[in-house]
Structure formats: C-alpha cells, structure tokens
Amino acid sequence: MLRKVVYNRVYVILSLFIIISPGLASAATYIVSPESDDRFIQAAINRASDGDRIIVKSGQYRENLNVTKKVALIGLDTGKGSPVVDAGGMGSAVIISADGVTFEGFQVVNSGKQWKDAGIKVISKNNVIRNNNVINNAYGIVLDGSADNNVLKNQVSKNDVGISLYSSERCNIVENEAWNNTFGGILLSKANNNTIRNNNASLNHWAGIILGESSNNTVSNNIARYNENEGIWLLRSSANTIRGNRIRYNYIFGIRLLYSNRNSVNSNTVRNNLDGISLEGSNGNVLAGNNLSINVYGIYVDNSFNNRVYMNNLINNDKNVHSWNSTNFWNSTEIISYSYNRIPYNRLLGNYWSDYFGPDPFGDGIGDLTHIVMGTERDYSPLMKPSEMYTLRG
C-alpha cells in the first residue's frame, strides 16, 4: 500500500513537471559583456527565443542590431555608464523589426546619414522604448509604418530630428527630452491618432514639435522653449488637439497653424514669442482658454476664416491681435452656461483683453461695449476679468 502511494506521488510530480517545463524553457536570460565570451549583442539576439531577456552590461558595442525576436533588451550600468551601441556611421544602430520588444537603458550613437537612418528605428508594433540616451544620429528615434508603440523617458539630442513618426498610429510619446536637435525635437509626418504628452522639446534649431499632414493627434502638457522658429508647428494638419502646453521664448512662433484646419488649440500658456498663436491660411479652428501674454503679437491672423476665438486671455502683448484679409469669430458662437461671482448666467463669451475698459452694468462679467479687435473685426462679448474667473457649467 505504501509503495502504491509513493508511486502515485511520483507520477503526480512528473506530470506537473511535464506541464510546467515548456514555460520554464521559454524564459531564458542571456548576459552580454565585453569581458565575457558573450560579447556581441546581435549574437545573443540570434540565439534567443521569443520571451527571453538579454541583459547588456556597460561597455562599447560597435554593432548594427536587428531585433528580430520578441525579447527584452536591458542595458545595465555596472559602474561605467550605460552600454553604448555605436553604428560607426553606417545604417541604423538598432532596428526593431519584431513586435513586443522592450529596449531600455542604452546609449545609442552614430547612425549613418541616409534617409531614415536612426539611432533606434522601429518598424513593428507594441514595443516599449524607454530610458535611452540617443545622440548624434540622423534620426534619434524613428517609428516608421508602426503602431501601438510606447516611447518613454528617453534623452534625445544632437540628432537631425529627435523623435519621428512616419505613417505611424496609436503611439505614445511621453516624458522624453528632445532638445538641441538640428531640425526638430518631435516630428509627425502623415501620422494619425498618436499622443504626444509631457515632453520637453526645447532648444531645437527649427521647431520643438512639428505635425505635417497629420490628423487626430493629441499634443498635451509639453514644454517648448527657445526653439529657433516654432514651439509647435502644424502644417497641413487637421483635427488635432493642442492642449495645456507651456510655450515660451521661441524666436518667432509660439504655436503656428499653416494651412491647417479644424484643430483645437486650448488651455496653452504662450509667452515671450514674436507671435503667440499664428493662423496662416487656416480655417475652422477653435482657440479657447489660452493665456497669451508678453508676445509681440498675441494672435497673428493672415488669410484665415471662420476660426472661433474665445475665453482667451490676451495680456500685455505689444499688439494683442494682427488680422489681415481674414474674417473670424472673436467670441463664442453659441450660448455658454457659466458662473461669475457664484451667480449662474447664460451668455456668449468673448476674450479677456488687457486694454479693454468697458462697463459691466449687469454684473455678469461681460463688457457692455464691443471690443474692436482690428478693422471690422469685433469681440461682441469681451470678458471683464481673466477667463479663469468664469466657471463653465454643463
């Protein structure tokens, strides 16, 4: 009887081992180091299987990597800095062609200078690119025909373009430092439905964030300062949301819309630029709730029509508005429910102008006299106080 019980237990244990052993076999860890026999990252990638992990220690790795497996590549600082992947001026340093890759903790340098040569080039989906330092490449990080990727907390500088999205969708570009690049910090080209959030795109030699022929993207809570032309530039782009960004000390444009229609530009702080917001050949956009101050022109409008501009604060700009050959709405076009001094009202709402001094006999926060914007343009419902004093309801 005892022998039978023992046999049964052994059978159960062996059965469990058979069940779980395939899972154990598929989770190998490879360690790469210049001081070990395993000193080439690509060789480890070639040996690995999907689901494996490759840990790379500090050192210089003069390789061009092609990540063809669903692996996690982890750069580990063992006291001599992050491991460096150096392309030596030829091609892309790292190409991620498999789906579901994690690539983090590396310094990536010296790609070639051909079209779309990059420090890190992603041509697949569902990848995580995190905590890398990407320097001196044609493109720092480029997502090319990809989808559902996350680019997080990377330092991307001294490239031609910091982070680029070409024909890529549903990607998240979050908390990166994209600065001091030759052309732009972050560039979207024919890229739709992406999120660009909490990045610092400053000190670039053309623009901080650029959207070209791109739609339905959300650009929010970014910093764009000291760029040589634009903080944020939309070119032939539509239906994007530009919200909550802090844009200062760009030499020409804070936010520029050029041939761009039906975008929402709201709740941004735009100060100390030549133009706070510029609309050129751009129609049907909504500018609402922005703080525009100490610019030469708060809003500059040229050949643009049917834009709705309301609930903005235009304070101490040299000239609050310049409008040329344009007809736009300088107050809401629909009744808005709001509270002012804790009393509810339903009115059209315009903008707050630091040079407006009309009366408010009804105490509803709306000036009784229209504000002359420029020429025949009028704000018919100018605000008596900055827009944050009005609480929107509903």
UniProtKB/TrEMBL annotation:
Top-level division of the source organism's lineage: Archaea
Claim: Cytoplasm is one of the keywords in the record: no
Entry keyword RNA-binding: no
Pfam families: Beta_helix, NosD
Domain Carbohydrate-binding/sugar hydrolysis intervals: 56-189
Keywords for the protein's UniProt record, in alphabetical order: Repeat, Ubl conjugation pathway
Pathway where it operates: Protein modification; protein ubiquitination
InterPro entries in UniProt: Beta_helix (IPR039448), Carb-bd_sugar_hydrolysis-dom (IPR006633), NosD_dom (IPR007742), Para_beta_helix_rpt-2 (IPR022441), PbH1 (IPR006626), Pectin_lyas_fold (IPR012334), Pectin_lyase_fold/virulence (IPR011050), SCF-Subunits/Alg-Epimerases (IPR051550)
Coiled coil segments of this chain: none
Database matches in PANTHER family: F-BOX ONLY PROTEIN (PTHR22990), F-BOX ONLY PROTEIN 10 (PTHR22990:SF15)
NCBIfam families recorded: para_beta_helix
Protein name: NosD domain-containing protein
Taxonomic source organism: Candidatus Methanocrinis natronophilus
High-level lineage: Archaea, Methanobacteriati, Methanobacteriota, Stenosarchaea group, Methanomicrobia
